[in-house]
Design brief:
183 residues; 8 helices; mainly alpha
């Protein structure tokens, strides 16, 4: 038993001697070198992760997988999406001009959220649409035309939205939503 105790005492004293002479300077240099190498490795790993994440997001852009992103294939969510769109269309057919304007803004908001969830960057739908390529959404021109109506509603105080113009814009939004498998 005494031999084991003596061994531990000897090991502890030897460990302390490493720091009692100039050895600690060498260990400190080694520690700094290893720390520097680890820092470079982890910095490289972070940069690589960011680049790879951007590549993945870029490859996902324009894919007509909105139904998967939003999980609209589940019957419950599909029913809610369809019901929500039905309410927007009812507002679009309203005799009240403000209701029609609100329907256009709601449809624009839905598409803004869908494109955002699909990986397109931008503060609003217009900014996101600038990143969409022609082949990503086949009815991109229809979406731009409908969005222009929304912009006129939002930015022109005296803009008059006729029932025909409202239904035309909503049908364009609907065309895009069907293409993206939202409804």
């Amino acid at each position: 038993m005494q031999a084991i105790f003596d061994f531990y005492i000897y090991a502890f004293k030897s460990f302390l001697e490493l720091f009692s002479y100039d050895y600690y300077r060498y260990y400190l240099i080694l520690l700094k070198a290893f720390s520097f190498l680890f820092s470079i490795f982890f910095a490289f790993l972070i940069v690589w992760s960011v680049v790879r994440f951007r590549q993945i997001m870029k490859s996902m852009k324009g894919m007509p997988f909105v139904s998967e992103v939003l999980n609209v294939k589940s019957p419950e969510l599909q029913r809610k999406a369809f019901e929500n769109w039905r309410k927007i269309m009812e507002k679009g057919r309203s005799l009240d001009e403000n209701e029609r304007k609100f329907a256009i803004i709601e449809a624009d908001t839905i598409l803004d959220k869908i494109l955002g969830m699909s990986g397109y960057d931008g503060e609003n739908l217009g900014a996101k649409l600038k990143h969409v390529e022609k082949g990503d959404i086949l009815s991109l021109d229809d979406l731009w035309e409908a969005h222009k109506v929304r912009n006129r509603i939002a930015h022109e105080a005296n803009f008059k939205l006729t029932p025909e113009a409202a239904l035309s814009a909503l049908s364009r939004f609907e065309k895009v939503l069907k293409e993206l498998q939202y409804i």
